[in-house]
Automatic annotation (TrEMBL):
Signal peptide: none annotated. PANTHER family: ABC TRANSPORTER G FAMILY MEMBER 20 ISOFORM X1, ATP-BINDING CASSETTE, SUB-FAMILY H, MEMBER 1. It comes from Psychromicrobium silvestre. Keywords: ATP-binding, Nucleotide-binding. This is ABC-2 type transport system ATP-binding protein.
Length: 246
C-alpha cells in the first residue's frame, strides 16, 4: 500500500530566489516540481546556479525567498535526513581507508547495518575492490565510492552534482545504467551536468541559465523546441529564441 507521502512529488520549488546582496541574484524566480521515481537532469552552463540549486534542495543553502519542499517537507527538515542523498562535485572519500571502510563509516553515521554498506558497494560495481585503499583507485572508481556512501542509506531522492565529469565514455555509460536501475526501483534522481549529450538519459530536464529556469521539458520536447536532434544545438537555439522574444 502506498501512503500519501510516497505519492508526493520528490520536490516542489516555488518562487525560489537566492540573493547575495551584490549584483544579480544567484537564483531568481525558480518554479518546478520533480516527479518521484524519475531521473531529472539539471543542465546549464558553468555558473548557471546548478550547485546552488542542489544545495538548496538538500537544505544546506539559505534561501532569500520562496519555498523548497522535499517529499512535502521543508528542505533540510530533520525528518528528511535519511531520505535525501547528496554527492558533491568533490568526492568525500577518505584516501587512507578501504572502499568498504569508507562506505561502512558513512553507513554507521546513519546508524545503518554493515549489510547496507555491502549492498551499496555492489550497486556501484565495486565489490571486487572493496578491500582496496581509496588512494589506489582510479578516478572513476573513486567517484563510485562517493556514490556508494550516498546509496548506503537507500535515499528516496538522490542529488548528484556532475557525477560523470572526468569519466571516460565507458564508465559514463555504466553509471547512467546504474542511475536508470535506481530510478526503476523508485529512487528519484536529480543529476547535474553541463554536457548536453547526457540529457538524453533523463526523463525530464531543468534548463538553467544565469540563475533562471529557461524550461522544464523532456529531451524530445527540447529537440522539437530547439529544432535540432543534437541536444546541445537545441539548447543553444532555445536560448537564442528567448533572447529574441525579450
Ligand atoms: N556564496 C556565494 N556568494 C556569491 N556568489 C556565489 C556564491 N555561491 C555561488 N555564487 C555564484 O553564483 C553563481 C552560480 O554558482 P553555482 O556554483 O551554483 O553554478 P554551477 O551552475 O553549479 O556552476 P559549475 O557548473 O561551474 O559548477 C556563480 O556565478 C557563482 O560565482
Amino acid at each position: 500500500m502506498t501512503t500519501a507521502s510516497q505519492q508526493a512529488p520528490a520536490a516542489e520549488v516555488a518562487g525560489l530566489a537566492i540573493r547575495t546582496g551584490k549584483g544579480s541574484p544567484i537564483l531568481d524566480g525558480i518554479d518546478f516540481v520533480l516527479a518521484p521515481g524519475a531521473i531529472t537532469g539539471l543542465l546549464g552552463p558553468s555558473g548557471a546556479g546548478k550547485t546552488t540549486l542542489m544545495r538548496t534542495l538538500v537544505g544546506v543553502h539559505k534561501i532569500s525567498s520562496g519555498t523548497v519542499k522535499v517529499f512535502g517537507l521543508a528542505a533540510g527538515a530533520p525528518a528528511l535526513r535519511g531520505a535525501v542523498g547528496y554527492v558533491t562535485q568533490a568526492p568525500s572519500v577518505y584516501q587512507d581507508l578501504s572502499v568498504l571502510e569508507n562506505v561502512r563509516y558513512f553507513a554507521a553515521l546513519q546508524g545503518l547495518p554493515r549489510a547496507s554498506a555491502l549492498e551499496a558497494i555492489d550497486a556501484v560495481g565495486l565489490s571486487p575492490l572493496s578491500h582496496r585503499r581509496a588512494s589506489g583507485l582510479s578516478g572513476g572508481e573513486f567517484s563510485r565510492v562517493s556514490l556508494a556512501c550516498a546509496l548506503a542509506g537507500k535515499p528516496r531522492l538522490l542529488v548528484l552534482d556532475e557525477p560523470t565529469v572526468g569519466l571516460d565514455p565507458v564508465l559514463r555509460a555504466e553509471l547512467w545504467q546504474r542511475f536508470a536501475a535506481l530510478a526503476q526501483e523508485g529512487t528519484s534522481l536529480l543529476i547535474s551536468s553541463h554536457v548536453m549529450e547526457e540529457a538524453s538519459h533523463c526523463q525530464t530536464l531543468l534548463l538553467l541559465r544565469q540563475g533562471k529556469l529557461l524550461a522544464q521539458l523532456t529531451p524530445q520536447q527540447l529537440r522539437e523546441r530547439g529544432r535540432s536532434e543534437d541536444l546541445e544545438l537545441a539548447f543553444l537555439q532555445l536560448i537564442r529564441d528567448q533572447e529574441v522574444a525579450k
